[in-house]
TrEMBL record:
It comes from Drosophila melanogaster. Residues 75-168 form the Ion transport domain. This is Transient receptor potential channel-like protein. GO terms for molecular function: calcium channel activity. Coiled coil: none annotated. One of its GO terms (cellular component) is membrane.
Length: 169
């Protein structure tokens, strides 16, 4: 049933709904379209939060667009984690900062303990709050029993617990 060509055509039309002709585009055009959505995902998310019933907001409800936005967001989160782990914000100040900024950075490095979170770390904190909020919403939407039946939710809970533990430590 699922392998039948008519069913596959129906599933593809549902999956790519909102992007007419996407499957017929060349590889270069597909990559450009995907890259455009990936780069503009914060703008799309803001539009969806502010005006969910506008044309762009309706497009954001389509399965393929949801997939692209979620994947782009998570890749951006991983990129920010890489930057935080490499102390990229300090390197940015060392390379492009003014002498005052470099002096403040040197003073901060002398008192490593108790250092306030950097801007990149605050972005990570916002993402973790979003991950926790997403799980809380899912619990309210499907109920606790149904939530606990899905093993993927245990992985999400463990991931969120580890993020929160690291932030607390």
């Amino acid at each position: 049933f699922v392998a039948h060509s008519n069913i596959q055509q129906l599933l593809s039309s549902i999956w790519y709904d909102g992007l007419p002709g996407f499957r017929r585009k060349s590889i270069v055009d597909k990559v450009i379209c995907i890259a455009q959505v990936a780069v503009l995902f914060p703008l799309y998310c803001l539009i969806y939060m502010c005006a969910p019933n506008c044309r762009t907001g309706q497009l954001m409800r389509k399965p393929f667009m949801k997939f692209l936005i979620h994947a782009s967001s998570y890749l951006f989160f991983l990129f920010i984690l890489i930057l935080v782990s490499q102390r990229a914000d300090d390197d940015f100040v060392r390379i492009f900062g003014t002498t005052r900024m470099k002096k403040e950075l040197a003073e901060q490095e002398l008192r490593q303990r108790g250092q306030t979170p950097s801007k990149l770390e605050l972005i990570v904190v916002m993402y973790v709050i979003g991950f926790v909020w997403e799980e809380v919403q899912e619990i309210f939407a499907v109920g606790m029993k149904s939530y606990l039946r899905n093993m993927w939710n245990f992985i999400d809970f463990l991931r969120n617990s580890l993020y929160v533990s690291v932030m607390c430590l």
